[in-house]
Model the fold of this input.
Amino acid sequence: MSERVAQGFSIRREWGRTTHLLGTIGPGVIWIVLFLVLPSLYLISVAFMTNGPYGLPQMPLTLQSFRELAGFGFLGWSPGNLYTLLRSFWQTLIATGLVILIAYPLAYYISTQPSNRRALMLLIVVVPSWTNQVIRTFGWMNLMAPDTPLSDTAAVFGLIPPQLGLFPSSFAVIVGLVYNFLPFMVLPLYAAFEKMDHDIVAAANDLYATPVRVFRHAVLPQTLPGLMAGTVLVSIPAFGMYVIPELLGGGKSMMLGNLVARQFAEASNWPLGAAAALIMILATLGGLLILRRIGRKLGGGKEVVL
Amino acid sequence: MDAPAPDTTSERRGRAAREASSIELRGVRKTFGGSVVALDHVDLEIRAGEFFTLLGPSGCGKTTLLRILAGLEQPDGGELEIGGRDITGTAAHRRSVNTVFQSYALFPHLSVRDNIAFGLRMRGIDRAECNRRVDEMAEFIKIGQLTERRIEQLSGGQQQRVALARALINEPDVLLLDEPLSALDAGLRGELQVELLQTQKRLGMTFVFVTHDQKEAMVMSDRIAVLNEGRIQQVDSPDAVYERPRNRFVARFMGHTNLFACEPDGEGRLRTGLGTLSGCREPGGGCILVRPETLDLQPAGREGENRFPARVVERLYRGAFAEYQVECGDERVTVIASNRGQALFRSGDEATLAVDPDNLVSLED
Done:
């Protein structure tokens, strides 16, 4: 009797656990399977298909797209696509580096302000991102166009030939990336600075550390989680960025995102686009692994990245 | 300014004990945010090899003063000398001064060994020499078996020792301690008070210790500076600060007090709320202090000089002593009677309060 009651309870508990799981993570799992896992599998398979006469993928399976991506076409080998890949890497690296250099002192300064002023300053940092990215990027086009104060000043210093604008160029793309992604670095760094134990900084200072070493041994380890989160939030979207290089870069500063878009839209070569997208995903994963290793090294063996 | 006697420790460590340094502050001022006065013209001399305590309630400026000594805070005005050299403008990392922080402020990403070696490493001493000295220091401070641990694996008391070792290993001219024992439970605190004091005597180093606990200050210090509202109220030995406080603030801060207004009657006696006191050494006017333990409570009906009838209002029995609240004349008085086996009074009892005129202290204000 009591055994059956207990069994009934355990079945009910089992059932309760199942509904609990379905109710909490169920919708998310369904969403991810439908809109991430299945499309990704489709993308991978398309990357290995043949380009049909109307740009649609068809059988048989082949490595043709990857060969094309590496630069082998009808007219022999050309380095254009490889340049695009390399350009994506270095523009992302420079932009992320500049964002870190600007965000570190800014986030520190904000964290030292009285709390009401802090909220206002963070708002000022975030407010620009409330406007559409395309509109803001058009704004930069106007700012850096020929015959504008910025371009004229640059020409006076001999940085660009007169009559030419600062845009389109890789410089303009990097300016656009830095401007666009700054808040994504400032916010996590600010959160890290706010939690920072200032006594540890004072202790390093007290124990003969020069300002650079105080940063290296007391500030950096304490703000590392914020720095790593910010780096992930900035570098990954920057690497795949489409709008900014499209508008500010012109044909010569294309990044991977533009290459992918072009294959699906104008060039009508889905397998090539899918292959480029696949390489982009793999490169991103590789970048994350490198970041993780850097984080572990700087953090004295502790896991700080994802 | 005797050089500290060569002791067993320094002989074992194969180095001569360093000569301790004196400290001098002249007219040091510091305000925060333009209006909050943290230190108001502080003059202070700390002798070489002294265990010197800055004592005061929170917000009195004692920690600010310590941070100015460390170079972590710049004074708005005034001068600061250590060992006869002016270091007012010297950056913290160039001062031969080390600090034990209230929160310990150990580097969480470094091992105990790397924490202790930090100051030596920053001064470019090679790793082998660092390791040798860390092992010595860890042994000296009784954490020899902990050097390879991570900081989060240590108890509060062990972290306190690591913080002390990390500062002492640099053999600074002056060691600053910012309430280093306040986070520990009472038993451990007592134990570490004794150890800290022994360490200081063995090294002969100048220690500047900050605390808000007057008992701790009295146990440990050679001299105490009592601070309030950014000003130094009194600098003296522990017994002098307790027995001959200069003003009401010091008197109240150092322990239980009975304060009476008084005026001289012109014949060497003092009129007070208790009655007229005779035989006083300095029969000035103003305010007198009578420590509760210097008063005596005797059976009712005893008469004579400086004896006044009184009535017991309340009794708190504490074993080693009993604390009475007594009404006497126009005043309410606290009496602490140590337990020598005499009969206890009950509340409501009539008694006689005996005042010893030698233990009266007249205060400036």
Chain A has a mean pLDDT of 85.
